[in-house]
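so my prof wants the structure for this chain in the tokens format not the other one, which i didnt know existed until like an hour ago. anyway here's the sequence
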Amino acid sequence: MGRFFRADPQSRSAFAIAEPGYPFIAAAGFATLVFALVEIALPAILGLAVTFFISWFFRDPERLTPDQPGAVISAADGKVVSVRVVEKNPFVEGRCLQIGVFMNLLNVHVNRMPTSGTIREIRYTSGKFLPADRETASTANEHNAVIMETEKGHNVAVVQIAGLVARRIICNAGEGQQVITGQRFGMICFGSRVDLYLPEETSRAVNVGDKVKAGTSIMGYLPS
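here's what i got, hopefully its the right format
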């Protein structure tokens, strides 16, 4: 059995919730309370259901990250919708292996670092809100690119992409920051996509259609 490690401190809560979800949960809970106090049954029941759904959507489960040399870990939960070599891209110079993961409303939406290294640039770009499973969404949609250099000098980009429903990209990382594989760095609210741009020589470990989990699933191995 392989070795694993915990990239972030363990939560003290049995059901951890990502911090960006607190305002949504509070608003839904308050509306539910108001309906209950004035004894309007149906809206109160619906409000309770919405409050539980939002709490569940913003869940932030603990993850153990594989400790394997050169391993690139998924930055998002979801379904692999793209594994291809691209001739050029706006984030990393030259030919790259692009791996795209689509997150639907039922997936955990907390994003994690795919590899260890130093963040060289964070580049936010406004854009459209096309369905995130389309290839054109990778650059046409609103997105936030975290461009980093690994400990062995490889250039890697992890790009948070807004989807048809998503309107809020959250990135807590900063330029110059040293990060480790599996570390939480942000999330995208309500359905979205995350793309990885890796060196072309990266040995891929996933195929289109595979289901992956952030911080846990190995996407490939960087060249040594």
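also thought this was worth mentioning. The mean pLDDT is 91.
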